[in-house]
Specification:
binds pyridoxal-5'-phosphate; 361 residues; alpha/beta; Aspartate Aminotransferase, domain 2; Aspartate Aminotransferase, domain 1; globular; three-stranded antiparallel beta sheet
Length: 361
């Protein structure tokens, strides 16, 4: 098909580049922030018990059982929840529901590289409001976003790729002053160390906030493609009843997602292990001369030692040893590597390889 059939914005845009995947099980994958642990045993049971005869019928269109379970977990109403095909589908729904072609969308780069891609698909204008040197939103973020008449702001919290966390009070102030809708992307919230960090009650009471949650990270289910949004019913309703694909979540995913979200004991245990391993990773990288930003996510952003090889060459050297980490050829990130927290054994291999690359004993 020739390019002339494409909408001009689609022709002009660049697609999303996912992190590398490797078919070789020997590869140590610390590049796409997957959970180092498998999903809950309840998910394995639910998969085994799933009766394929049910696939004859269409699935529940709004994932009612999942929304009920999630509502119970968060102490909100099912009308305040929408289940989506990964958090990514929620991002798309926010744009198709609330942003007209030509409208501005606020982001603070660097952040999740899918935001610009989805904004371009919708024909929106990306408005980059920048971050401070310690990865916080610039103090005049809201003023500038309002002046640019941004309809939506994407705020990732904990921030990716740094792992920095903004507290509820700061986000409340932003939400109250911003004239548009704020999508707070909480993809990594399951790894926040601060006990009690919970934005759900604030989100459902505000009239311009939607939280993004995903089962891809904390629940170890990136392959399932299941996420959800939490917000005021007036914001959730148009996405649930109008812009969502008619059957956006298949019957198998719905059944496994319910099993996963109901086993909070397991999630708590893997979360504890990831947080512990994150600390070990920070200390080990620090001892090798990396500067590591404090992180509330299941990854760390490490600035490579000034005196040694570049981040790109360390990334390449690790890759040649079958260890994948993430290098971003992007402003503010070219001297850094984003490294996903792994199992103790994976991290041991990583540190051993880095010692060799940096010629440290
Ligand atoms: C910041 C951020 N938001 C959202 C997502 C979406 O995750 P998923 O579509 O797997 O739920 C990701 C995935 O890497 C992410 O890093």
């Amino acid at each position: 098909m020739t390019t002339e059939f494409q909408r001009p914005n689609i022709f002009a845009m660049t697609g999303y580049t996912p992190g590398e995947q490797s078919a070789d099980p020997a590869t140590i994958k610390l590049n796409t922030n997957e959970n180092p642990y498998p999903p809950s045993p309840q998910v394995f049971d639910a998969l085994q018990q799933f009766d394929a005869a049910h696939l004859r019928r269409y699935p529940n269109p709004t994932a009612s059982d999942f929304r009920l379970a999630a509502a119970k977990l968060h102490g909100v109403a099912p009308e305040q929840i929408i289940a989506t095909r990964g958090g990514d589908e929620l991002l798309r729904l926010i744009l198709t529901t609330f942003v007209d072609p030509g409208d501005s969308v606020a982001v603070a780069e660097p952040s999740y590289s899918l935001y610009p891609v989805l904004t371009a698909i919708q024909g929106g204008q990306l408005f980059d409001l920048g971050l401070t040197s310690d990865w916080r939103l610039a103090p005049d973020f809201v003023d500038r976003a309002n002046k640019a008449r941004c309809k939506v702001a994407f705020i990732v919290n904990p921030h990716a790729p740094s792992g920095a966390l903004m507290d509820e009070a700061s986000l409340r102030t932003i939400a109250e002053a911003f004239n548009g809708l704020i999508l707070i992307d909480e993809a990594y919230v399951d790894f926040v160390s601060n006990a009690g960090h919970d934005l759900t009650q604030f989100a459902v009471k505000a009239d311009n906030v939607v939280l993004l949650r995903t089962l891809s990270k904390g629940y170890g289910l990136a392959g399932l493609r299941f996420g959800y949004g939490i917000g005021h019913a007036r914001l959730i309703e148009p996405m649930l009843t109008k812009t969502r694909d008619s059957y956006n979540l298949d019957a198998i995913s719905q059944s496994l997602a319910v099993a996963a979200i109901q086993d909070q004991g397991y999630i708590e245990e893997t979360r504890r292990q990831v947080i512990e391993a994150r600390l070990e990773l920070q200390v080990a990288l620090g001892a090798l001369g990396f500067e590591v930003a404090p992180s509330h996510a299941n990854f760390v952003l490490a600035t490579v030692p000034r005196s040694g090889p570049s981040a790109l060459s360390i990334y390449q050297a690790l890759k040649s040893k079958q260890i994948l980490v993430r290098y971003f050829d992007q402003d503010r990130l070219r001297d850094k590597l984003r490294i996903t927290v792994g199992t103790p054994e994976e991290q041991h291999q990583l540190i051993k390889a880095l010692r060799e690359i940096l010629q440290r004993d």
